[in-house]
Amino acid sequence: MRIAISLGIVIFVSIALGYVFHSFLGFIETFILATFLQLLAPTIWNTISKHRQTIAQLEGEINYLVELNTAVVDCPCGNHQFEEIIVITDNTIELTCPACKGVYKLLPSVKTILTTEPLDIEEDVKIGTEL
Ligand SMILES: [Zn+2]
Hints:
The strands form two sheets. Strands 1-2 form a two-stranded antiparallel sheet. A two-stranded antiparallel ribbon has the order 3-4. The chain contains three helices and four strands, in the order H-H-E-E-E-E-H. With 131 residues, it is an alpha+beta fold. The structure holds zinc ion (ZN). Residues 75, 77, 79-80, 97, 99-100, 102 line the site of zinc ion (ZN).
C-alpha cells in the first residue's frame, strides 16, 4: 500500500513537472527525467549521507591523533610556547619563536622507565628446592 502511494506521488509530481516544463523540454521528456530523478534521489541521498558519516568519523579519529601528538613546549626565552604536532620518527621540525626570533628544532625523546620490580627467578628456584 505504501509503495502504491509513493509511486502515485512520484507519478503525480512527474506529471506536474511535465506540465510546468512542457514548453521547454516537452512533456514526455520532463516526465521521464522527473521520474528517474525521484526514483534515484533516495539512493543518491543515502550514499552521500553514508560517505559524510564515514568522513566525519575519520575526521574525529584524525583530530584525536593530532591531539595525542601535539606537544606544548616553552621557548628558552620564556616569552612563547610552541604548540606543535610531534612525530617521534621525524626530527625535521624547525620553528621560529615570534618573541625572540630564534629558530628552534623540536626533538622528541623516548626513554625507558622501569615500572615493575623484576623477580629474581634463580633465587626463588633455590628457595623452592631447599624446602
Ligand atoms: Zn623565544
